[in-house]
Amino acid sequence: MPHRGWTVLDAPSNLGLRQLRPGVEPGARRLADALRACGLVERLGGRDAGRVEAPPWTSLPENRAKIPAYTVALADRLGELLRAGEKPLVLGGDCSILLGAMLALRRHGHYGLAFVDGHLDFRTENVDAVAGEDLAVVTGRAEDALADIDGLRPYVRDEDVVAYGDRSGDRAPVRVIDLAALRAGEWAVPDVPYWVHVDADVLRLDAVDSPQPDGLSYDELADVVRRLLPGAVGMQVTIFDPDLDPDGSAAAALTDCLVRGALP
Description:
By secondary structure, this protein is of the alpha/beta class. The protein has helices at about 30-35, 40-45, 60-85, 100-110, 135-140, 145, 180-185, 220-230, 250-260, and strands at about 5-10, 45-50, 85-90, 110-115, 160-165, 175, 195-200, 230-240. The chain has an 8-stranded parallel β-sheet with strand order 2-1-3-8-7-4-5-6. This is Arginase family protein.
């Protein structure tokens, strides 16, 4: 029998991120450890599915070259969970783990994407760090090694994506409900079952690699997640950096937020 709640899988990859400053690796790879230490799995009544270990973070060109193999490894594991009828909750890691999730779903059938993020991550020129172009990649706009694994480009179609909470002012050829529109009550979901991507930088939060002014409150994010749950086949959480949260208060608040949002 499949587990009826969340099945929690760690994807502690930093491969999509630049160094924070010369010689300093980002700490997003410890996101899962921080949220687990706050009791996330137990509080959700979740099942522990372990981790898909990432190769070492080194330099941008080398990291980019490592992402395809990691994407396949993550997609293979998620595919096992999906075939077993599980509902995965993937704890990153950076936003490049979205490639593994959407590849798994593309192999499985026709799915959409609910993209909750302070940025649109749709850079297609001067590309380097995949965490800044993950939405472009999963909709087919990158080199074959990233965007056409198994000949399955695109992993998700533009018309099956809705982005929520953007405050970057960037553009992408998907339905965008930016921060102001979201607060004004605009709402939509993909027309097909979908994966939920939550980047912690959608919050008013400093413990991320690219903080911006304003952003959702924890209560607002919990409400967005709760509203997305009925059509969701799984979810991922990315970019929170415990190294920028020395007293652990942001990890505790983010865990509380996810528990409030992700419980039925």
